[in-house]
Amino acid sequence: QYTLRAGATVITVKVEELQELIKTIIFPELEKADDMSKESSFITAAYIKYLFFFRSHLPHSWIMQIVCRLAALMKHPNKVVSSYACASVERFFFIQGPDKKSVMNKEALGPVVGNILEPLCILLKSQQNLYGIKSLYRILQSMGPDLNPLAPTMAQMYAFYLDTAIAQAVNQSFNYMLFECIGLAIKHARESNETLTVYENQICPSLFNIVSKNIPELISYAFQVLSMFVLYKKELSPNYETLMTSIITTKQNWDSSMRYLIPGMIQFARAYIIKSKASLASSLKTLFEVFYQVLLLKIDESAFALLITIATTFPFDQLKDHLVGGINCICKRIQYDKLNTVQKQVPLPFSRGLLYFLSICVNIYGFAALQETANKVQPNVLLMMLNSEMGKIKHVEGIKQRKEVVTAFSKILYGIDGMTPELFKGILEGVVQLVDTGIRRPLGAFESEDLSDDNMQRNKHQQIYSTFIEDTYKGEETINEKTILLKSLLDLGNKIHASVFARYGGL
Question: Residue 154: in which H helix or E strand, if any?
């Protein structure tokens, strides 16, 4: 049996015999692999592939020795040999020890990481090797901030790759992984403004060049990486403010022809709102107009991400008048989709975004304040929205999102004006089903075992997971979702019991 994660998991020979073969034949041959002849390259590639397939059966004490030898072969002139070496190193990161963690952790990598990075960077400067850039990502992932001292060298390397991508056509999957690596490097440097400045000085000229030239294959990635500098830098250069103003005030940016760019621009705008909300207080009307347009284009995840960032950043007194227009736009979209789509309902991304937005508002402002604002659109419109979408509660994703939804709807169960038996039952069933599905991954987590090597599509947004921005609202300190629900049901039971006792206890 063979799996992408572990290689060959079931073999027909004894493990000891397999290991003896590797030790006595393959190891010595790899040590002699400096012979660059065509015949020798073919044999070397075959031996590397053998290690690749049977990696799960290698003693853990051999792993770093093998990795160092494979790293030396990354700069082999034969592309098959260098690619096999890179692919093997990347897969070796999934070999786990007894603690279920990678044996290639930063403690194991630290003493030899320079010996691995040097040939890897030489390879990547000579060719856009997809397996090589995947290996670099895994190294960054494992080493974390411990690679920050190498920032000057790494920043120059990233700038070189970006300029190469700007100047000539490069494999889209390579571009994607390049920006994942850059985003991860910046995230790991977020606690060091000095390191961030090193990356900013080297990388941002290329990123702004991509934006100014509107390079379709790269511009969405550029916005996402720029959002990291906005979020983490202590002081922002005027270039970021200029870009933000251009993004939100240029109406053509929100045209349907720009669909593939909008998620990246929204992410940059969200980062800027979080970092510089004081300078945007007078631009709330413009920000809500952007929300309306993105929602009308049915780019629902981005639309609600922007709305939630606004709602969790600005005080309610500044927002309430604008929220009336926002809720009105949401209602129109629900009505339109129910009348004009085959499914006769809004899609799941819309429902998830709406439920999380309503939950955030309930948890921050209280249900009464939200209902009062919504009633300015139409009396009881909030209850109408809840009736419409309560069946989707079970589909909410993300650990934080689930907790906020359970917390908010547990409060709503406790008692609101206008609660009907049908609405109560629907909300309770939805919350219970959501809790029963178990904890899921955080939104934005890069959970794929295989870093994508599919052909990336032009004019299609690709999320750079290492640049994912979570909203800043911390929420209530809670143990878990079930605790929230159980506490609310107990409180509700006590409330009902007290009500009954008050009415009939004296009889």
Answer: helix 151-167
User: How many whole angstroms separate alpha carbon 6 and alpha carbon 418?
Assistant: 56
Sequence-ordered list of residues with C-beta below 8 angstroms from that of 338, at least 6 positions apart, any chain:
344, 345, 346
Q: Which residues contact 289 (CB under 8 A, 6 or more apart)?
A: none
Q: Is 297 helix (H, G, I), strand (E, B) or coil?
A: coil
Q: How far is CA 401 from the centre of its chain?
A: 14
**What is the b/e burial string over 201-215, where b = at least 16 CB atoms within 10 angstroms of the residue's CB?**
ebbbebbbebbeeee
- pLDDT (tens place) for every residue of the chain, 507 residues total: 777 777 888 888 888 888 898 888 888 888 776 655 556 788 889 999 989 988 888 889 999 999 999 999 998 888 999 999 999 999 999 888 888 889 999 999 999 999 999 999 999 988 889 999 999 999 999 999 999 999 999 999 999 999 998 988 778 889 999 999 999 999 999 999 999 999 999 999 999 999 999 888 899 999 999 999 999 999 999 999 999 999 999 999 999 999 889 999 999 999 999 999 889 989 999 999 999 999 999 999 999 999 999 999 999 999 999 999 999 999 999 999 999 988 888 999 999 999 999 999 999 999 999 999 999 999 989 989 998 888 899 898 888 888 889 888 888 876 676 778 888 888 888 888 888 876 555 555 444 444 544 434 444 558 898 998 887 777 666 556 666 666 666 666 655 545 444 543 443
Give 110's contacts (C-beta < 8 A, 6+ positions apart).
143, 146
Helix axes 316-340, 348-365, angle to 10 degrees: 150
Closest by CA to 227, choosing from 209, 242, 210, 244, is: 244
Pairing of strands 2-3, 7-8: antiparallel
The backbone torsions φ and ψ at residue 451, rounded to the nearest 5 degrees and listed phi first, read -65, 125
Contact (CB, 8 A) for 330 and 385:
yes
Q: The whole model's pTM is what?
A: 0.87
List, in sequence order, every residue forming a beta bridge with 3; answer none if it has no partner: 7
| Cα distances (Å, whole numbers) of residue 456 to 94, 162, 268 | 25, 17, 22
The upper half-sphere exposure of residue 201, i.e. CA atoms within 13 Å in the direction of its Cβ, equals 9
